[in-house]
Design brief:
The chain is mainly beta and about 180 residues long. The protein has two helices and twelve strands.
């Protein structure tokens, strides 16, 4: 029994961790209460890619503290606060280090090109859905946004996330039974 418990705790600590979706920010991809498995060692195998769904610690002061005060008008937050939050978030990578990024009608534009985002629930009316001034994602950092653009506190408000604050990549849903599958 002790060996099984030790093995289970070891797997959760170093390999795979379960995570419950706490909010509507990833709807329609992930529903509130849905559960996913997160690969904790995947971030050590390579850099995250655009479109990956990650669990991470956002900059402290979230949901709305940009690292640049006051934040430039009509601009996605270009820099997070230097401290990380204690809270885990789950969002999608929309911007990679060095990308030039802006948001129009909820759609992400990277390096001047509108991204194909069939997973996103776009919103042209929310306060952070029209940020036409372009920013550059800093080296070693990732821009994270929820799929439900009008209902997501994300990098648009609190800035990009350093790679070292990434916990892991969500790769599979396991609850509820009707939504089991790979992400």
């Amino acid at each position: 029994m002790a060996v099984a418990l030790g093995l289970a705790l070891g797997i959760q600590a170093f390999l795979v961790k379960p995570f419950r979706i706490p909010s509507e920010s990833m709807v329609p991809t992930l529903a509130v209460g849905q559960r996913v498995l997160v690969c904790r060692f995947c971030s050590h195998l390579g850099d995250p890619g655009r479109g990956d769904i990650l669990v991470f610690k956002p900059p402290a002061g979230q949901p709305s503290t940009c690292g640049v005060q006051p934040p430039p008008p009509d601009t996605p937050c270009p820099k997070g606060t230097p401290e990380k939050s204690d809270t885990n978030f789950i969002k999608r990578v929309v911007g990679l280090p060095g990308d030039h990024l802006k948001v129009l009608a909820g759609s992400v534009y990277v390096n001047g090109k509108k991204q194909d985002e069939p997973f996103a629930r776009l919103d042209s009316e929310c306060a952070t859905c029209n940020l036409p001034r372009e920013i550059t994602v800093p080296k070693g950092e990732y821009y994270m946004m929820g799929d439900n653009r009008g209902e997501s506190a994300d990098s648009r408000e609190w800035g990009p996330v350093p790679k070292k604050w990434i916990i892991g990549k969500a790769f599979m849903t396991y609850w509820p039974p009707g939504r089991i599958g790979l992400l």
